[in-house]
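Example 3.
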Amino acid sequence: MKKNLVLLLISLLFIMLNAFGQDRAAEPMLPDSNAITSETVYLGNILILSDIPNDGGGGIEIDWELNDSLNNYYITIVRREGRTKKIVASDLLASSKQVRDVNSDEDMSNVKDGTEYFYTAILSKYAVSQQILDYLVCDSIDLNTRTIADGYQVYLISDESGPVKAKASWFNPERLTVFVSAIIISFIFLLYLQFARNGKKLYIRKINGLDAVEEAVGRSTEMGKPIMYILGIGYVTDIPTIAGLTILGRVAKKVAEYKTKILVPSYDPVVMTTAQEVVKEAFTEAGRPDIYNKNDIMYITQDQFGYAAGVDGMMIREKPGAVFLQGLFFAESLILAETGHSIGAIQIAGTTETAQLPFFVAACDYTLIGEEMMAASVYLQKDPLMLGSIAAEDIMKVIIIIIIIIGFILGILGIGLHIEFFNKIFNLLIEIL
Amino acid sequence: MAISTNIWIWIAALLTLAIYSFLYKDNPFYKFAEYLLVGISIGYGVSIYWHNTIITKVYNPLVHEKDFLVIIPLILGLLMFSRFFKSYSHLSRMPIAFIVGAGTGLSIPSSFEFLFKQVQGTMPASLDVGNLIIIVGVITTLVYFFFSMEHKGFVGKVSRIGITFIMIAFGAAFGYTIMARISLLIGRIQFLLSDWLGIIK
């Protein structure tokens, strides 16, 4: 009986010790006051807080002023909103002098406009451990103490700065130049559209790759093979993808006229939906809505190399007679173009990605280089109004050439004003106006 | 030589070989790896969309933060599903029009800023051979992209110089990118010979 009682007492003691140990582990680490050394200095109020100017809100800029001798120290920034604390940045080198507390895609409500925030800086010789970071944001800590220590190092705490509020700006004056340029460019475009409306004859030069569209579609039809149109891995908001969709409309019209089949494997679901609409409209325009099959415009995947593998497999099995690669391409460009080449298809490629264009030039029969792709829809349609926009673009290029030559001459004359010279003239004009 | 006993390294190595088998010809191993890659990436993509879009950008703001402005993009997003109903499928054009219009509009200011930076970068401060090549290269390349005039006579000659500059740049870019691809291939072969087969250390 006595033996059992002793065993029971030992067990209870063990359980109590264990529980006590767990409680201690759950507590935030308290500072070891003995570790505070003579190195301890008073940081004071080092943080300068401000709303980030000319932004859409949800952003606060935190700058700090520290003696250069502390440049190799680490700085941690803690934000307080009411009783809630958050680590904004940790293990930053003090020499960086600045950090921004902003919203991100993952946390859109990190910084709320109109809310009062307070910030405190913690300076340390070495990187801050996770235990100290947890301790800094726990409710019990009083950040008004000037130092804390963990037996390993001393942490110097600044005075709390704030309050500061984030706010959104209606206008960004730094982009005034862009605004005025947009007005000038719009004016030139409207002028040339008016010329086109008035019947002025406008010309567009020969683009070899586009002359081959009919040949490629015709050859595929004769061989009884489908046409494959690859829009790349861009989204519908990317300009090359939009240009690719416009060319798709013209190619699909030819396909409908020849009563052949077009396959459009897509990377993005929205691009796929848009491509379905474009092809459907083209088939209707050609008077053949009956042969339109929406399943020919299919979704593959939104993984870059998964898409490349899927399209390659499809190419090998369907063996299209013509492959169009028009849109935004990255590292998968050569994988696709090389597979198209290996099956003997006529390939017409086009992209604005300068790093991928060499691969298309090497592996494809025709390549639309950069802006040639943008001009393609005008070339294929030859609409007088759209020809006006091409002429306006050329005028813009002439203006750019003149600006470059003036800047170059000013540069070699030693005036060294470059773009600042134009900025000064521009600002002067704004003031006069 | 110590062949790996880690099952995941074996799976990665066999899938690598299955993908490389495409270099010989299309075969069942490649098909298996292709379908697996496409299927897994779609599944992964759906989970990413669910957490990063539905939960983070719709559910949390609407339910926890009572931000009812989220309802507008939510309705636009839901309109995409109208494609499944023949009589209402035209409604799906509204979100597409919004995305294309907003995307194009938003890209204009950044395109302008990019253009200004390029113009600024083309204005060298001193006259030397390198700077002269830059100026001649940029101007002749711009002339090559003139579409509203025939490339004959003086313009034709200048544009030919322009396309020569473009091809030299493409040659340099080609070599540079091939080097990067070779290093990727080396990485994969190292994985096969070192992590999997243990032939090299």
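Residues 12-39 of chain A have pLDDT under 50 and may be disordered. Chain A touches chain B through 69 residues (CB under 8 Å).
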